[in-house]
Design brief:
This protein has two domains: 42-51 and 60-66 and 90-227, Cathepsin D, subunit A, domain 1 (Beta Barrel); 260-294 and 307-426, Cathepsin D, subunit A, domain 1 (Beta Barrel). Helices cover 10% and strands 34% of the residues. It has seven helices and 27 strands. A six-stranded mixed barrel has the order 3-4-9-5-8-7. Strands 2-11-10-26-27-12 form a six-stranded antiparallel sheet, with no helix packed on it. Disulfide bonds join 351-386.
Length: 429
């Protein structure tokens, strides 16, 4: 039992939610599981997925992508989530989240590459809303405006989303936090407006990159962490089928063998790690260097890749795996029809090509991304050429181990408040 001042509430789920008054005693929430659900309303498009990643991290987008995207509506946040929906072809996962009293249900992206919980709201101009559900703090008896607080997220193409900040009851799965910061949008960039299925975003990176000013706010996970049985959340994302996010426990039935852990460098607010090795097909490149932020600006040839550390972030909010140019070259050199296409904005190949597996190693655990996962989507309606799930990390400054890489593993995100680490284990694919 928690003392009366606790802001943690145990709830049975999103339906029939009963929110206890803050003065009531509470049960320890312990752990909870959030299964994904399928949403067939999204069309897979490789150049769009790549553009989202560049813009999300403020990297310069290759000129070739602008022409390609001219007639294609894009959303700058692509996610991996919980109660989530692989919007068609795994591009976006949406999670029903309850906000306020009585509950208002919004579908949010769960994103381990950001740290804001922001939503479309009653303060969002009608011209910027195209079917999204909107949180209305005036209709919640538990909402409180945070006086003087604002938030503002800018993206690599110069667009931004911004607004005010409230605290309110937020329920995810069976876990509820009564004083969660909810950032209400007063301005939404056109890319978010065009993403009619997405009502906002729930960040799962570290609270140090939360954008609320003048005082940063904690993520939902940071707020509930001490009341979980274990300070972990896990991602069991899958290829073309629903997966699961678990909080507070590790489900041993979801993986095989042992979980190998590696230290996380959270100094930039991300789940940043360095892989021990990678391989394309049968050729292995040992990555003995463990330096975190010293990837050279020009990459060596594949034969020299043993000296190149493969440092990147585990990001459920990015669809593709973005890797150094040298690694991309090494991979696609084994696909006879592959080319780095200016027309398509990235690496493409014949859709009927047999792609090699891509393997990465964490400690004693080897994770293999099947070649079929890397055949991401046809470039156009002809279905002759396909876009690769491995692309260049360009000017981002680090690699991004997005959903293409994470779906091949059972991944543990552990943060005890002082020594965060990531765990990887093999699983049945």
């Amino acid at each position: 039992m928690f003392p009366p001042s606790s802001s943690i509430i145990f709830a049975a789920g999103l339906t029939g939610l009963a929110v206890a008054a803050p003065s009531s005693p509470f049960h320890k929430m312990g752990s909870f599981s959030i299964p994904q659900v399928r949403n067939a309303g999204y069309v897979r498009h490789g150049p769009t997925a790549l553009a989202r990643a560049y813009m999300k991290f403020g990297a310069a987008m290759p000129d070739s992508l602008f022409q390609i995207l001219a007639d294609f509506k894009i959303s700058k946040r692509d996610t991996g989530s919980a109660a989530a929906t692989p919007e068609q072809y795994d591009i976006q996962y949406l999670t029903p989240v309850s906000l306020g009293t009585p509950p208002q249900i919004l579908n949010l992206d769960f994103d381990s590459g950001s740290s804001d919980l922001w939503v479309f709201s009653s303060e969002t101009p009608a011209s910027q809303v195209k079917g999204q559900a909107q949180y209305n703090p005036s209709k919640s008896s538990t909402s409180k405006e945070v006086s003087g607080a604002t938030w503002d997220i800018s993206y690599g193409d110069g667009s931004s989303s911004s607004g005010n900040v409230y605290t309110d009851v937020v329920n995810v799965g069976n876990a509820t936090f009564a004083g969660q910061a909810v950032e209400t949008a007063q301005q939404v960039s056109s890319s978010f407006t065009s993403d009619t299925n997405n009502d906002g975003l729930l960040g799962l990176a570290f609270s140090t990159i939360n954008t609320v000013q003048p005082e940063q706010q904690k993520t939902f996970f940071d707020n509930i962490r001490d009341d979980l049985d274990s300070p972990v959340w896990t991602a069991d994302l899958k290829h073309n089928e629903p997966g699961t996010y678990n909080f507070g426990f590790i489900d041993d039935s979801l993986y095989t063998g042992k979980i190998a852990y590696t230290d996380v460098d959270s100094s930039d607010g991300f789940w940043m790690i360095t892989l021990d090795s990678y391989s394309v097909g049968s050729s292995t490149s040992n990555l003995s260097s463990r330096a975190f932020h010293h990837r050279p600006s020009t990459f060596p040839s594949p034969s020299d890749s043993a000296s190149t550390p493969l440092t990147g972030i585990a990001d459920t909010g990015t669809t593709l795996a973005l890797l150094p140019d040298s690694v991309c070259t090494e991979y696609y050199s084994q696909v006879s029809s592959a080319a780095n296409s200016q027309t398509a904005g990235g690496y493409v190949f014949d859709c009927d090509a047999t792609l090699p597996d891509f393997t990465y190693t964490v400690g004693s655990t080897t994770i293999t991304i099947p070649g079929e996962y890397i055949n991401y989507a046809p470039v156009d309606t002809t279905g002759e050429q396909c876009f690769g799930g491995i692309q260049s990390d360009a000017d981002i400054g680090f690699s991004i181990f997005g959903d293409i890489a994470l779906k091949a593993a059972f991944v543990v995100f552990e943060d005890d408040g002082s020594s965060p680490r990531l765990g990887f284990a093999q699983k049945s694919l």
